[in-house]
Design brief:
This protein is mainly alpha-helical and 207 residues long. The chain is 78% helix and 0% strand.
């Protein structure tokens, strides 16, 4: 972490970008604990240098809020709520960074048991993503985040439908489909639909 700071000394925006990229790399390797310090430093660096309303700072805020929501250790709402205000003002509602910040806030609210507020953010977001023709705006994680919320609300059939949509979006944007496939199988098992769950696993392994 110190080596990154030294390499980008005097270039705070470049350092924020680099740390977010490093964090994403660690997360893709299944090492979120190694990603966390880079996200925290990127977020702090953005705040210290007036970069919190720029794309780099907003990406750092979205990733850090999501990390806090999933792993604990911080308040995701405190990070994501002001970031969403900045994103809406500077980038607009349709920008892909704004979409990620909105989703991060919703996931953070869900983690704190604020289901109605999370629903109010995620449902219109997913509805908008269903209509988009811009591949950069497509976010399979938004679908599985809403599916997770529906599961918490006891709406298992709705959760399963959203996870199937997430799998299809993942195919369109060519990202790994392991997470939505595993979550879909779990929801199907919870509904007693064991044969369908097995089919999902088999199809995922075949791909």
């Amino acid at each position: 972490s110190a080596a990154v700071g030294e390499h980008f000394k005097g270039q705070p925006e470049a350092e924020v970008q680099a740390r977010v990229v490093l964090a994403m790399g660690y997360e893709s390797l299944g090492l979120p604990g190694y990603a966390r310090p880079h996200l925290q430093e990127a977020y702090a660096l953005s705040s210290r240098n007036g970069l919190e309303a720029g794309e780099a700072g907003l990406r750092a805020a979205a990733k850090l809020a999501a990390s806090y929501a999933v792993m604990g250790g911080g308040d995701p709402e405190a990070v994501a709520r002001p970031a969403l205000v900045h994103a809406l003002r500077v980038l607009g509602e349709e920008h892909e960074v704004t979409i990620h910040v909105r989703e991060a806030l919703a996931v953070g609210l869900h983690s704190k048991g604020k289901l109605a507020e999370a629903d109010a953010l995620l449902t219109p977001l997913v509805d908008r993503l269903r209509r988009t023709t811009d591949p950069e705006q497509l976010s399979p994680t938004a679908f599985w985040s809403l599916a997770s919320l529906r599961r918490s609300q006891g709406r298992l059939p709705d959760a399963a439908a959203l996870l199937r949509e997430s799998l299809e979006v993942s195919r369109q944007v060519k990202v790994v489909r392991g997470v939505p496939a595993q979550r879909l199988a779990l929801v199907l098992i919870e509904q007693g639909r064991l044969g369908e769950a097995a089919e999902v696993y088999e199809q995922h392994l075949a791909e």
